[in-house]
């Protein structure tokens, strides 16, 4: 019984370094992830620190 990694039909695997999910070798994807993170961080920073959860 051989244990081989599953074959990827897309060709080369997206390279990641120092991160488990940020693609470094795909500029369009990298820019998209950056903008999404920036928007999320902006929302988080602007939220009031103390919300009433009732």
Structural class: mainly alpha
- The beta-strand count equals 0
Largest sheet: none
**Terminal-residue CA separation:** 56 Å
What is the number of helices?
1
Order of helices and strands: H
Low-confidence stretches: none
CA radius of gyration is: 18 Å
CA-based shape: elongated
| Helical residues, percent | 25-40%
How much strand content do the residues show?
under 5%
Q: Let me know the average pLDDT.
A: 68
Give the SSE map.
Blueprint: H1 27-46
Structure characterization notes:
There is one protein chain. The chain is an all-alpha fold. It has one helix at about 25-45. The longest helix has 20 residues, at about 25-45. The radius of gyration is 18 Å and the shape is elongated. InterPro entries: GEF_Ubiquitin-Prot_Reg (IPR052805).
Summarize the structure.
InterPro entries: GEF_Ubiquitin-Prot_Reg (IPR052805). By secondary structure, this protein is mainly α.
Which features characterize this protein?
single chain, 37% helix, 54 residues, elongated, mainly alpha
